[in-house]
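Input record (one chain):
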Amino acid sequence: MRSFLVALQFLTTLPIKIASKVEEKDFGRSLAWFPFIGALLGLILSLSIFLYSFLPQMVIVSLILAGSIIMTGGIHLDGFADTCDGLYGFTTKERALEIMRDSRIGAMGAAGIVMLLLLKFSILANIPPWIAWKYLVLTAAFARWSQVLSCYSSRYVRREGKAKYFIEYAGRRELAVGGVFILALFISLLGIKGLNLFFVSLSIVLISITYIKSRIGGMTGDTIGAINEIAETAVLLFGLIFMRINLC
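The corresponding structure, as predicted from the sequence alone:
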């Protein structure tokens, strides 16, 4: 239960108070809960589709995106913006890490957020409501499991930071538990064709992780947040594409 509360506290803005002492290894164990909490977030967001069905679809999509930011505190968007700033151009590893630590958002970070939100908005606005709730659940769950994959496959490149213990104590068990859940989720919601979407989205995530590691030698909390946003966008984009060509 403690590891579940750690994951819930980290991934949401809920005012979670953990009575017992949180040990370093609890951060790693909490990763097993990440995709489950992601699926729960997706289900909550999907309620907007039904509660506000009397509104135009573009308004509903705006409410969904706003709700996502509110429930997560925009932590992953912030990481995405910092990563865009840090990895833009041919900077050194040290300079990139320095830029990402700066609390101010630069031009590339601001542009990245705008482009990302516009892309998500345009995709969701073109997915029929009767299936959009499935993609919201898959998107949120897969993105949180992608964070687990990022932690497990990388090393932490700073001395201290929020993500340090998640990465250092990420285990094969946490990755496998989440992976089985995600595969089952894709198949149960989209049928066997859902595997097409899973593997294509996974390839985008793996390419992104490999690129970030080649630039800075590992992961930071910011880059893990960026992977979350990349994973969400990959599922939505290829989900829409595969719908149009009957691959999903």
